[in-house]
Specification:
12 strands; 7-stranded mixed beta sheet; single chain; Heat Shock Protein 90; about 15% strand; 4 domains; alpha/beta; Helix Hairpins
């Protein structure tokens, strides 16, 4: 075995040849040599282990430093984010970027502020709801107070026009009627807009004829068109079904708004109404309605504004043509409720075209009631009617109207008198005002139903709130008529319940 180089150098230097011949000495030297080699191996292993440990330590230390920096950066970013969402306007004190307790304090402060804000918002919401309720109640009262005298104005105008007035009186009476009708349209627009905004626009489902509906609207606008030297034409798709199911009142309101606008903004021109069948399905049809005119037109920049409440294409429109700017806003909102929307094509000075598409359910036939208005004979054949009404001029109007149709009319000035009269006498139908002194119409109807469940009772109401129908049906009435009423529509309802 070769001696370790360090041992070999020491033996050569300090021992002579006589020592190397001794066997015991040789064994000793070999043991020492083994120790030298073992020491070298151990040192090598120790050096390697130290080197590996140092590398691992450096790596761990480096990772810890990175994590500390990431943590410090995260805390700093979190504090800056918190400072950006603070509810006050004071700049946040960032402080020590390594202080998590500061973040906890900031969060606690912000949570407290948010709770205060939520409480303030809850109070504001309750106040807004109270204000909305007060507005609805105010509109209900105003509606009643305006509609009640307006019923007499329109009604008396109608009676005077039917009583063979002198030639010099006809124009005055027509002016009176037109002004009263315009006032009624204005009131209805404001109330309808309030209903839509409050989400209280109720839709009815009933069979109707589109052709009859459109022709009625044309008839209603013919006089206005003639005054402005306009012509109105209608074109129906030859494949259009005869009968549909839907809310003909709201559809008629939309079409009437568009046609009356076309008439108003056109002079010595033409208004064309189109009803086209876009698609016919098994139980429904998609129908496209359009109203086109050759009138003043609308600048392209105003195509959106005209559908906003109380907005018109320009201030000169209000001065020259009048109106509140609610017609198209209501039209758009009604169509939205009907899952449709209004479209417009128009250029200034080149006329306008408004159009929309509706999917309507189709039905086999329309009830004969739809045609009663055109074929009816105005004769109630000595039917006895009890009129429960406290307003004198409304009593005068209704009495003259009913007696003109050959009805016998008894009058009760409030609900209590009506209950007493019906306990002692019979009649064929009751016309019941809702708001009266002593006893209102709801209470009177409940009392009448205790001893007479058969007699038809029709509510006469000047209120335009959305829950009137539900309330009158709930107390036992069969129907209701809103003042001011159209005499023809009023007669159709009377005929329906008297038969």
């Amino acid at each position: 075995m070769a001696h370790h180089k360090l041992l070999k150098r020491q033996v050569t230097k300090h021992l002579g040849e006589q020592c190397t011949g001794n066997e015991n000495f040789i064994r000793f030297i070999e043991a020492v040599n083994d120790s030298y080699h073992a020491f070298d191996r151990d040192k090598e292993l120790s050096d390697h282990a130290f080197t590996v440990s140092q590398q691992e330590f450096d790596e761990i230390n480096s990772r810890l430093k990175e994590e500390v920096e990431i943590r410090r950066f995260s805390v700093k970013k979190l504090k800056r984010t918190l400072s950006n969402i603070k509810t006050d306007n004071n700049e946040a004190n960032i402080g020590n970027d390594d202080d998590l307790l500061e973040i906890v304090d900031m969060l606690n402060v912000e949570i407290a502020r948010r709770k205060e804000a939520e409480h303030a918002m809850l109070i504001a919401k309750e106040e807004a709801e109270k204000a909305s309720l007060a507005k609805s109640e105010f509109l209900s009262v105003v509606s009643h107070e305006i509609r009640t005298p307006l019923n007499a104005v329109i009604g008396m105008g109608h009676l005077l026009l039917k009583s063979n007035p002198r030639t010099d009186q006809v124009d005055n009476l027509k002016t009176l009627k037109t002004s009263a009708d315009n006032l009624l349209v204005l009131i209805n627009d404001i109330l309808d807009f309030n209903k839509i905004e409050a989400g209280q626009l109720d839709l009815e489902e009933a069979p109707f004829s589109i052709k009859k509906l459109v022709n009625d609207i044309v008839s209603a606008n013919n006089n206005g068109a003639s005054e402005r030297e306009n012509t109105i034409s209608v074109k129906f798709d030859e494949h259009l079904p005869d009968c549909f199911m839907g809310d003909s009142l709201r559809l008629g309101q939309v079409l009437n708004n568009l046609v009356s606008n076309a008439v108003k903004f056109t002079h010595k021109g033409a208004i064309s109404i189109g009803v086209d069948l876009k698609e016919l399905k098994s139980n429904s049809a998609i129908v496209v309605f359009s109203v086109e005119d050759t009138g003043v037109g609308i600048a392209k920049k105003n195509h959106i504004d005209i559908f906003l409440p109380f907005m018109q294409a320009s201030t000169s429109i209000t001065r020259q043509y009048g109106g509140t700017g609610l017609g198209l806003a209501i039209t758009k909102r009604i169509l939205n409720v009907l899952n449709s929307d209004i479209r417009v094509k128009s250029e200034l000075g080149k006329g306008s075209k408004f159009y929309f598409a509706l999917e309507l359910a189709t039905v086999e036939s329309v009830s004969n009631e739809l045609d009663e208005n055109s074929t009816v004979e105005y004769d109630l054949q000595n039917k006895r009617i009890l009129l429960v009404e406290d307003t004198l001029f409304n009593v005068l109007y209704a009495t003259q109207l009913l007696e003109g149709w050959n009805a016998k009319v008894d009058v009760a000035e409030n609900g209590a008198v009506a209950v007493e009269m019906l306990q002692n006498e019979n009649c064929d139908l009751v016309l019941m005002d809702l708001q009266m002194p002593v006893m209102d119409g709801y209470t009177a109807t409940l009392k009448i139903r205790e001893f007479n469940k058969q007699i038809p009772i029709i509510a006469l109401t000047a209120s335009a709130t959305s829950n009137v129908r539900e309330k009158v049906i709930a107390v036992g009435m069969q129907d209701y008529v809103t003042k001011p009423f159209n005499p023809d529509d009023f007669f159709v309802k009377l005929k329906k319940h008297l038969s």
